[in-house]
Amino acid sequence: MLAFVTRRISAMIFVLVSISILVFLIFFATPGVDPAARIAGRNADQETLAQVRHSFELDKPLPIRYLSMMRHLFVSQDLTSYVNRGAKVIPQLTQAIPATLSLVIGAAIIWLGLGIFFGIKAASSRRKWIDPTIGFLGIIGISLPVYWLGEVVNLFTQAKLHNSVFRWVPQLGYVGITDNPFQWFLHLLFPWLTLAVLYAGIYVRVLRNEIRMVMSEDYIKTERAKGASETRILYKHATRMSLITLVSLFGLDFGSLVGGYALLTEVVFGIQGVGRLTYQSLQNFDLPVIMATVMYASFFVVFMNALVDVLYAVLDPRVRRV
Amino acid sequence: MHRRPLIIKAVLATTALLVSAIVGTNASLAADSAPLAPYDAKKAGGTVTLVAQAAAGTLDPKVNYTAQFWQLYQASYDGLLTFSYGTGATTFNVVPDLAEALPAVSNGGKTFTFKLRKGIKFSDGKPVTVADVKASFERIFKVSSPTAGSFYNGIVGADVCLKTPATCKLDKGVVVDAATNTVVINIIAPDDAILSKLAVPHAVINPASAPSKDAGTTIIPTTGAYMYKSYDPNKSLVMVRNPYFKEWNHNAQPQGYPDQIIFKFGITPTAQVTAVENNQANWAFDPIPADRLNEIGTKYASQVHINPLTAMWYLPMNVNLAPFNNVKARQAVNYAIDRANMVKIFGGTQLAAPVCSFLPPNFPGHVDYCGYTKGATPAKPAKAWAGPDLELAKKLVKESGTAGQAVGIVVSDDDVNKQMGVYLQSVLNSIGYKATVKPISGNIQFTYIQNTKNKVQISVTQWYQDYPAASDFLDVLLGCASFTPKSDSSINMAGYCNKALDVKMAKAKALGATDPVAANKMWGEIDQEVMADAPVAVAFTPKQLDFISSGTKNYLFSLQYKMFVSQLIVK
C-alpha cells in the first residue's frame, strides 16, 4: 500500500512539473510576448529597457529563468506580477480563494439539493407527466450558457427592474463573509443560482438514470419479492447506490470549479476569485500570475484524481497491483 | 503616451445611433477657457466611486505611464510645476506648484532656478525639503522610469545615471541649497518642452526615503489634497484626504470636494454603465460598449460629456520594407483611405473627427491642412479632408511598380481595431495590393509592431499626447533617435529617419525655448514636410466620452489629464 501511495505521489509531482514547464515554454514561444518592453513603458530608452530586462531576469537563458521563477513561487514565495509591478502573486491568489470557495460551495449546495430532489422525483413519480417535464427543464438548464444567463440576470436585477422589484440587489462584486455576512449572502445569491442551474440540470438527469438502472437490478426484485415497501427500496437501496456515482461526479466538478472553472460566472458578476484572476492574467500576458493560477488549478485536479485512486486502492485491493 | 490597449475596446460602428441629443460638447477651446472657480466648502464631503475593468499597474508615480492613474496623480502628487486646473486651453498652462513661481531662466536657456515653497508637508507629516527634490530627480533614474531616457536625459549627469542607475547622483544637474531653499536645474541643451516635462507625474517630488526601486503596490506619501489609503490591483484603490494638506496655489493643487475617492477594479464595461445609471458609481473609466451608447445618448444625455482629445489614430507604414519603401505607395494609402468611414467604425462623428495632419487640432503647431484629399496634393494642400481619391491612389500604385504585392495589416484583436483592419484590407485590395489582416492580442500588438524582427508592413495604432508640445508627436514618433531596429521599444514604427528633418526638428526645439510662437510655426512646416514623405497615414482624432451619474456635479475637463476627479461634487 505504501509503495502504491509513493508511486502515486511521485506521478502527481511529475505531472505538475510537466504542466509548469509547458506553460512556461508556451508563454515564451508566443511571438511578440517579451514582457520587458511592456514593463519598461511606452517609448522607454534602450538602456532603461536593458535594465528592466536584467531586473526581471529576462536576459538569462530559459532554464535558469524557469528555475528562478519556481524558486520565487515555491521557496521564497515572493514572485511578483509582470503587469502590476510590485504586486506579489501568492497573496493575490490566497485572497481570491475565499471568493471562489464561497461561490462554489454555495452553488454546490443549491445544485445538489435541486439535483437530488428532482432526480428522485423524476425517477419515482407515478404521475406520467412529471418525468418528461423535469427532464425537459434539466435540458434547458444544461443548455443555458452561464455567461449568457449571468448577463440576462444582470440585465434584470441591475438594469431593467433595478428600480422596482430588485431594488435590494447590491452592486456587482464580492464582500467577504467576515466583513458582513448578510452582504456576502446578497452579493452571492444570483451568482449561486446562475452557476447552480447548469449543474442542477446535469445532476437531475444523472441521478434519475442511475436510480432507474438500479431499480431494474436483480437484488431490487429480490427485495420487492421479500415484501419491502417501495419507499424503503427507493431510499434505502436505489438512491443510496446511485449517490455513489453522483459523489464521484461531484468530486471532479467541485475540484475543477474551485480550481478556476467558475471563471465565466466570476467575470460576469465581478467576483474577484481565482477564475477572474486567471482571466485577467491571460488577457494581460502576466506570466507569473498565469503560472500561479495554473499550478493551483492543476494541483486541485491532480490531487483529487490521486485521492480517488488511493481510495479505490483502499476499497479494492486488485488496484494496488497495477 | 500610448493609451493602455485594453481600453480601446468596444466603441462600435453602430453609433450613428449616438443621438445628437448628447450635450456638453466642447467644440471650441478658446471660447470656454477659464480658471478654476473658488472653493466652496459647503459642497465638500461624500465618496466618489470610479469603476474600471482593470487597474493600471504600479502605483509609483515615477513609473506608471497610463492616463488612468495620471488622472489621479494630479490630485495627490505635486512637482515643482504642474498643469493648471480650470477649463479649456487653461489646462495646458504650466503653473508653479511646489515651487513659488515659474523658474528664472539663465545661461542661454540651460539653467532654471526655482524657490521651493516653505511649510509644505508630506502626507506622513514630514516637511518637503530641497533634499527631497534632489532625491526625486535621482529616483527617476534609480527606478528606471519609462521616460528617464526620453524626457530627463538632458539633465546634466543623466547620461551616467542612465548607465548605472543604482548609484545615480545628479550633483551638477540638480543643485540644491537648503539655506535659501533654492533648486537649480541644469540641462545640457535648451529644451522647448522642459517646463512640461517638469510638470508631468514622473517629475513629482517624493520623500527622499522613497524606495529606490519601483514601489509597485506600496504607497508613497503624497503632498496634494489626497493621499492613498490602500491599493490592491485586483480590488480597489482608495484615496482619502491628506490631513497635512493646506491649499497653496488654487490653480495648481486646489482643495478637493469628496472626502474619499474609491476606484473599483474588475467591473466589465457594460456593468460599469449600469452602475453609473444606478448611481452606484459616479464615473465609468472604460469606453462605453456600443450596444449601450444609444441608451445613454437618449435616456441619460444630460450625464454625458464629450471633449476633444489631443491624440490620433494612425497607420505607420514601414519605410524599410516593400511595398512601403516606395513613397508613392505610401502616398497612395493616404489618398485611398476613407477617413470618414474609419470615424464611423470608431463610433461616429460625435466621437472622432477625420484629420490628415500629423499634429492634432488644438495642439501647439497644428495647422489646418490636408495634402491627401480629393483635388489636393502635399504641395498644394486643401484646408481640410473632404474625401478619398481612389483613382489617384491606383495611379500612384501603378507608377510605384508595387502593384500585386502582398501586404499584412497588423491590428489589435478588439472589435473596433479588427473592423479597421478589415476595412483597410478592402481599400488596399482595391488599389492593387493583396492584403491580409493579422489581428493579435491588444496587449502585445503595440510592442509587436515596433520590432523590426516582426517585419510589420502596416499597422493601426494610436498616440495620445504626454504634454502639449509639437515635439511630443513629431520628434518622438518620427525622429531618428526613436528608431532602434530589433527592439520592442522603437516607437518610430515606420522606421522613418530623415536626417535633414531631424536637424530642422532640433532647431525648432531650440527655438521653442526662447520664441515658442516662431517655433510652433516651424513645427507646422515640419508637419507638412513629413507628411509629403508619408511615413504614416493619419486617420482621425478621437474624442473623450465621459458618462457620470445623475448625482455627480461640477464635471470639469482637462486637456492634459481629462476629468478632474478631485473637483467632482457628490454632496
TrEMBL record, chain A:
The chain crosses the membrane at residues 12-30, 96-120, 132-150, 184-206, 243-269, 289-315. It is found in: Cell membrane. GO terms for cellular component: plasma membrane. Pfam families: BPD_transp_1, BPD_transp_1_N. Residues 97-312 form the ABC transmembrane type-1 domain. SUPFAM superfamilies: MetI-like. Keywords: Cell membrane, Membrane, Transmembrane, Transmembrane helix, Transport. It is a multi-pass membrane protein. InterPro entries: BPD_transp_1_N (IPR045621), MetI-like (IPR000515), MetI-like_sf (IPR035906). One of its GO terms (molecular function) is dipeptide transmembrane transporter activity. The keyword Transmembrane helix applies. Coiled coil: none annotated. This is Unannotated protein. The lineage of its organism: unclassified sequences, metagenomes, ecological metagenomes.
TrEMBL record, chain B:
Pfam families: SBP_bac_5. Residues 93-482 form the Solute-binding protein family domain. InterPro entries: Peptide/Ni-bd, SBP_5, SBP_5_CS, SBP_5_dom. Transmembrane segments: none annotated. The keyword Zinc does not apply. GO terms for molecular function: peptide transmembrane transporter activity. Keywords: Signal. SUPFAM superfamilies: Periplasmic binding protein-like II. CDD domains: PBP2_clavulanate_OppA2. GO terms for cellular component: ATP-binding cassette (ABC) transporter complex; periplasmic space. The keyword Zinc-finger does not apply. PROSITE patterns: SBP_BACTERIAL_5. GO terms for biological process: peptide transport. Belongs to the bacterial solute-binding protein 5 family. PANTHER family: PERIPLASMIC BINDING COMPONENT OF ABC TRANSPORTER (PTHR30290). This is Unannotated protein.
